[in-house]
Here is the input.
Amino acid sequence: MKILEIHSIQDSLKEVEQVVNKFDYFYLMGIYQTTEFSKKLNSKYNLQGSLFSIKSYSDFNMSSMNLYYNLSKIVGQEKIIIDFTPNHLGYDNFNFKFGFDDRRIGNYEWLDTLQLDYTKQETLDYMIRAIKILAPNVGGFRFDMAHLVLRKNYEQKHNVKLNYEPLEVLVKEAKKVNPNLLFIAETYQDYEELKNLGFIVYRVEPRRNQVVTIDCAKELVVIDNHDEKLLYWECNANLKCFFDKLKELSFYQNTLWYLPAVMGYIERPSANYYSCLFHINNNLKKHYLKWI
Here is the structure.
């Protein structure tokens, strides 16, 4: 299974169409409206707001929706994956009732996100309602930083007690609406626990030169995505290293590719904050296309 990650605000359908037949699923990141707080916070750096400072699950970015509708005509909506962020929402008046009373935020890089309080029934109810509304219109969800909402980690981080496993509930409720959903967990730990809950997990260690055993049926190896350093720069712009690494990673059964990298962009949007794309390297593009 090959998944193409698309930065939906910036990537054009024309670029997607060049490689559309090479992928099984298409992960559209950034389909939700960004909070005004995030936009204001980052305007002084000439950046737009974070794609993960989500205003609400019913408030969509129109340009992203245009890409969704056009892509669904080509591949079908059952091949489209979208984000679901189980640990936070954007820092916004509407969302305060779902967060902790002290309005705690993410870490220093995520000042525009509000941590969700799952000890509140209204928080769980809202997240269930959101994922069930979205479920019929997509083929799957990518759960952002999923391990943070595993009960054992969540209780320790927030110093609370839960009488349920939030991720288990969310997956179960979504599958009631769409049993064929694919669930992908972005995670850096607790792989087995997440797989037991029905997730395919990110496996990023091969990018970091660690020796790992890959369960090809239940794990997804990152070739390039928005959170990791561009593979080319990870090799310190050494083309031989880049070609060898790309060839090695592409042999894994389940892989995640990032469209701006595939198309040869040396600079591209990040997960946190949207900025412009510049400088296409056609040599890199040629080798990405070769190994997809």
Summary: Residues 2-291 form a domain with the TIM Barrel fold (CATH 3.20.20.80). The CA atoms of residues 96 and 163 lie 23 Å apart. The chain has a mean pLDDT of 92.
